[in-house]
What does this fold into?
Amino acid sequence: MSNLAQAPVPQIEVPPIDYGAIAPLLIVLGAACVAVLVEAFLPRHQRWPAQVALSVVALGLAGLALGLYAGSSGPEGITTISDALAIDRPTLFLWGTLLALGLGSILLIADRSVEPGGAFIASAATRAAAGAGGGPGPIDDPDDRSYGSADQAPTMQTEVFPFTLFALGGMMAFCAANDLLTMFIALEVLSLPLYLMCGLARRRRLLSQEAAVKYFLLGAFASAFFLYGLALLYGYAGSVRFTDIAAAATGSGRSDALLLGGFALLVVGLMFKASVGPFHTWTPDVYQGAPTPVTAFMAACTKVAAFGGILRVLSVAFGDTRWEWRGVLWAIAIISMALGAVIGLTQTDVKRMVAYSSVAHAGFLLLGAMSITAQGISGTLFYLLAYGFNTLAIFGVISLVRDADGEATHLSQWAGLAKRSPVVAGVMAFLLLALAGIPLTSGFTSKFAVFSAALADGMAPLVIIALVASAVAAFFYVRVIVLMYFSEPAPDGPTVTVPGAFTTAAITLGVIITLLLGIVPTLALSWAGSGTFVG
Amino acid sequence: MTTGGSVLLLVLLVLPLVGALVVAPMGGDARRAKLVALGFALASLVLTALTWASYSVADATGGARFQLEFSIAWIPAFGTRFALGVDGIALVMLALIAVLVPIVMAFSWEEKLPEDRTPAGFYSLILATQGLLVGVFAATDVFLFYVFFEAMLVPMYFMIGRFGGPRRQYAAVKFFLYSLLGGLIMLASVIGLFVVSGEQLGSGTFTWTELQAMAAGVDEGTQIWLFLGFFLAFAIKAPLVPFHTWLPDAGAEAPVGAGVLLVGVLDKVGTFGLLRYCLPLFPLASQRLAPLVLTLAVVGVLYGALLAVGQTDMKRFVAYTSIAHFGFIALGIFSFSSQAFAGATLYMVNHGISTGMLFIVVGLLITRGGSRLVGDYGGVSAVAPLLAGAFLVAGLSSLALPGTNSFVSEFLVLVGSYPRQPVYTILATAGIILAALYVLWMYQRTMQGPLRGSAVLGALERAGGPGTMLDPAVSAKRPGSGFPDLTRREIAVVTPLIVLIVALGFFPGPVLDVITPSVVATMNEVGLADPVEGLSP
It folds into this structure.
């Protein structure tokens, strides 16, 4: 070793790493690796408690590390690992949001009482092996409805925990990525586990597998767009770093074709992940087909990560060229809001309805992301926090409403729910009103924050369109409330499962945060606005 | 900016909301729930009386725009404060709520609710509506006002949708979506106001007085856009033609108690908003667009009255008379004179009392006959003279007979509007004639003449078996059966309203004294002088 060190060959210098700053990310990814080992070496019956404990502890530790770092660092932010990651205030806020939402998702995923044995299973054969399907018979029959019962204590597929942790780590890296290459790797790290998780549903396996394949194919397609855009931008700027791209764009006489072409392709990839219309086509199918806890995880966390990335790319790399691309994003935002609101009207499945609502919300978020001002950034960050918890809780509630065939997601099955279970209906009504943006909920304050930023940045027509879209979207939220409260229940309607402690905790967390952010949002708003992106 | 202040308004706001939370879980014990709810409503009434007593007309004349102010920082990032305060206009509206809510509760005491619905839920929603309405009228921060403005939709929506008539789902959704659309368009203007204030004052604010002081410096084009957002929301809420179509449906399907609150108080938020927000915050735009609003107002007066004449459903009838009355109020507000402002404000109170009473009397008829159709009633005065009398008083007040409360306000509106807007005023005066037509004709058809109509005859027949219908006096004397006259509870419900109708008809002075300094202040904020010598504070 000493010989090598003395040799005159130029060394690859290990870049300085600020371990304190990236500790949360390392903890999550490290825990994910440990979880894989747990999966490999622990006997089946011990895996579930071990995985749950590991995930919760890891998220808690990561949160602690984040809190310690945020408390000790200034508002300006740093870049580390050769500027591959930028740890600034928005990153810390996004990480905090992701960790909190991840914890909520883990709680939903860990629940084994709502769906006896948990909602996850890798294949029909596994189900039989796990004792859930039981007995002889064509075990690969997709319509096989012997799902086992609680007393048979079938075990769930615990791979879902390392998947979740890996995806979460990828999301955290995605928000913090300071160059396009890191961003692309993070994109893949977050996407691959999600593709798998979509296919794990214990019931309605065909739908679930279809969702997984669809998500994978379209996701791979979007990744290719992203990569192509990356290549063009590298060709333009000679670097994949955001700041270099920004500098090249302002100070060179090079042809803009590469820049704009690269930007367009990059945006397609990013918008796909954020399910912004018209790149949303996977959203309803995947939301519907994936196991509901996974849908909750995707809807809440992926949205946060994707918009975190969009915010950083737009402000750091393309902030100075905004006048050249803004028209395109105007059009995308309008399409997204209109599509989400209008097509949402025609949905008859609760999960698809929430999916289209998320497309409309993505349009609203884009308004904030486009206004590259301090207000716009803080408004978007706040919106992500509020929306994430709102959606998480909604999917938590959806997972509770069940009939003999599993979740009862068809809207007609929700008729008269308030009579059977007033608490669940009340919680759902509150969450829907929050999605609609009624005051005293987080939906209102977050809309206000984003729209005021957009209006201050001269996007008045977009704001008006957004408000009209909100009014249209309110119709389908209200329709669910009408069904739950004013309609007579069907005689063979679904029952509401008494939720286990985990699901209860996740829903409670979501509802409390939705309420608090609606009434006293000051603290979160000041966190969201405490600093801007580091260049 | 001061923090804290008088907590009177805060208590007045919070008390009914606490009541709503207390009453809501009492589903099992209906009687206790109703008593507790009534207790909260009466406590609010006492508090409101205390507020009225604490309000100083002398201070208001001396230039204090708001009194009993309470203010704490709420969301600094949005420049918004939790700020409450009343002027004379808001104070009389608070008084109207406080008087109407106990009456509504007493009226609904034996209301037949749809299957499986408990009175606890209904009374809880009434209290929630009351609390949020107090917030709407007492807010002196535009953001806070908006929050209450939207939030009050929710309890009213559930009241109509859960406790209403056969087409309640449709009516509730229509009500909610209309209001929400208006509210969201107003939100665009609210945000716009915030942004404009940020440009004008350096940092964005929602404090009403600061925004008002800034108003003169905002150019007319911007004002017009912001005005339109607010105006649309208020025009839907009030409602003005052509944004009115939700009201007949909501009014007809809502349970009578909720209908009284809806037409009596909740809709006043629209006209109150015009007077408190549109005029002072956007003075140039208000004057520029006044012809548009006046046209809508006069069309509303005539159109509402004509449709009222033609209604066959009594609850829809009341809703359409209200649309006509709201036209008068809007006429007064956009005529820019202190008499017209005072008249419009007084009209809001009087309309709450007289239309509330009309709604209640119609409700009494419907509980007896089980039908909402005019054609199912006839000659009721023969079996229920007190009920017929109450109907007559309510109707006469509605058509503004001299000696009733409405006469004073309608007269003030017309006198105040004429100097500046003679044409619109003359056209609106035709509405008075139509009002006489629809009220008296309705009275004649349902109350006078021989007993007729399936609802009346059916009720009598059920009470006494076949044959007794020929001798209505027999069944009428049998309490609790047939088509009985007013019970003691019902007399207690209508008496305070009749007293108010007559008292305000002869002695409007105390109320006008409270209103006058505030409308004079509003005149100054608009920046216009009275066309002829106006009210002096």
